[in-house]
Amino acid sequence: MPDGAKPVLDVRGLQTVFRTRGGDVHAVNSVSFHLEPGELLGVVGESGSGKSVTMMSLIGLLPMPPAEIRGGQVMLGDMDILKVSPAQLREIRGKRIGFVFQDPMTSLNPVYTVGNQVMEPLLRHMGLNKTQARARAIELLELVGIPDAERRMKDYPHQFSGGMRQRVMIAIALACDPEVLIADEPTTALDVTIQAQIIELVKDLRSKLGMAIVWITHDLGVIAGIADRVVVMYGGQIVEQAPVGELFANPQHPYTRALLKTIPSVSGTREKRLRVIEGQPPILGAAPTACPFMPRCTEAFAVCHVENPQRRPLDDKRVGYGHDVACHWDAKTGGIA
Amino acid sequence: MLTFTLRRLMFAIPTLLFISLLIFLLVDLAPGSPMSQIPLTVPPEVRLKIMEAMGVNEPVMVRYLLWLKQFFVVEPLVLWDHWFSTEYSAGMQRIVSWQSRSPVMDIVVQRLPQTMTVIGTSYVLGVLIALPIGIYSAYRQYSWFDQLGTFIAMIGFSVPTFFTGLVLILVFAVNLHWFPSIYDTSLRVTDWASFMQQVKQMAMPVMVLALYNAAQISRYMRSSMLENLGQDYVRTARAKGLTERVVVLKHVVRNSMIPVVTVIALGIPSIFGGAIITEQVFRVNGLGALLIGAIQGSDLPTVQTLTFIFAVLIVLFNLIADILYGLLDPRIRYD
Ligand SMILES: Nc1ncnc2c1ncn2[C@@H]1O[C@H](COP(=O)(O)OP(=O)(O)O)[C@@H](O)[C@H]1O
Ligand SMILES: [Mg+2]
């Protein structure tokens, strides 16, 4: 991936708040990341860390109210898509940004045929007539590895297995040849062998079609095999960002380190129980004034209680482009950075 | 889909037979005999003859079987003869009303049009009003439109139809003189003037029933829409860039209609029951009025037959609901 190429997607300072009866929930706090052409960016974090809300904020898929985007920019090419009209945003959704969701069992409409649902974005965005859209939909289903695609166009979602449904979702997301594919935990609801097949499929499609991908997961093990670069989220903010090799070799944030220890290793002894991080991710009632990880952190200093650490580069590159971490603790010295 | 329908149909037959037995036995327990309608001056031996002709001296099981034969064999044959000018039913005993001495089915056929025009119109109108209101209320939940809809619907189904009926009569017939308070069954629509007269006399009963039906159905539609609007597939539809119109009217409405169609189909027979009251209030000479009259006059054959017709309607619309359910929901169709 060429350094300094113009990003296809550049998110800066995104802030999303849910206004609920019990008060505001600050789900996304000043999140910045970018996506280079053809790149696969992994986004990891426990559930509740704000991954889905971040991605859905980008293209206006959150219910508003209660959600409210308080600030930030989302540059798609030269356009800030937080500022465009709802109609313009609909032109982007499904055409320039494709979305695959977590649960393939519920993400397809049960009363329409799969063919109908794959043809929908083609008819909406590509100016095709029904015959053309049908032909293209069959191609797409073949592309995502659905056997006997032409006949299966007439079938309904409940006649497909979970893995096959997720393939259909991928076909829908890729129908209009988008620049960006956002996959929100696409394999979490599937069993392990199917999960591996879907990951292989996405790798394959990526080399064929060349779109940039954001792959959300709470499983660092999945990320290791596919991502170019990784963003680690916690408490609605990015706590660490690095190329995948660097992150695994040299994790800086205590949270990243803890996450790495939760991956069951193939060489590890069988009887050792899977490790979990003690405690719960926070629900933020106010914009954080302390480090959100502090209550669970093994290394916390006094300063962590009063100052939310900003992302700082660990090399000579800008924040977001090399290796950076949002932590007061210095992993090398063990002191305050 | 065909086997699905046939299977449901197979179920309907024993159900109906059981219901018919139940109705027959229950109604038979009621006091009353054909004799109460026959003047006391008729000599005893003539009475006996009449009773024999009616079969009222037979044991109850025999009478039940006779009635079954009359309902399922004789009456259909009469209808057939009427349509195709044949004479298969000649000489067969039909179900005869104790009150009027004429065949019950002939009276039903006379009364049916009144009931159908009033009830049919009010139900169709109610559904047509209810669906858009339900859809829009759910889509704009808690908006002033939704709040107003909730309020009116609450009034609509918590106030009984005889009360709304009387209020309407008081306001529109007694005070404003816009509509007649009594339904003229003999009115024939031949020209514009008589058509307007028909519309005017239908207006109040139709309004009362339509309000009641719309209130219920719009609530069902709203809650079904709300349930579906939060589903994942709706998010998928939006993520495709579809317009809100398509998202709601194509994706959400189709799914929301599945339970509502059942409610609509099952509501049809029960509104015949509700119409009994409305027909009394507005003096519509329909099936409801016929049933009330038959009960008051201890006219058992008429009561049995009418009640059974209502039961048939309920089972029939159950069947229709099942079939519509299968048509709308592929998960059921393909089981
Ligand atoms: N509809 C909502 N109302 C209020 N809070 C919400 C809503 N949706 C999400 N949140 C909050 O946003 C946080 C992040 O959620 P999410 O992005 O779904 O987490 P992840 O995808 O990382 O598992 C949650 O902890 C929750 O408190
Ligand atoms: Mg999520």
What does it look like?
The complex is a heterodimer of chains A (337) and B (335). By secondary structure, chain A is an alpha/beta fold. Chain A has eleven helices and twelve strands. Chain A has two domains: 238 residues, P-loop containing nucleotide triphosphate hydrolases (Rossmann fold); 72 residues, no CATH class. Chain A starts with 8 loop residues before the first strand and ends in a 12-residue tail after the last strand. Chain B is mainly α and 335 residues long. Chain B has a domain of 224 residues: MetI-like fold (Orthogonal Bundle), CATH 1.10.3720. Helices cover 77% and strands 0% of the residues of chain B. In chain B, helix 1 runs antiparallel to helix 11 and helix 4 runs antiparallel to helix 5. Chain B is globular. Chains A and B meet through helix 2, helix 3 and helix 6 of A and helix 8 and helix 9 of B. The complex binds adenosine-5'-diphosphate and magnesium ion.
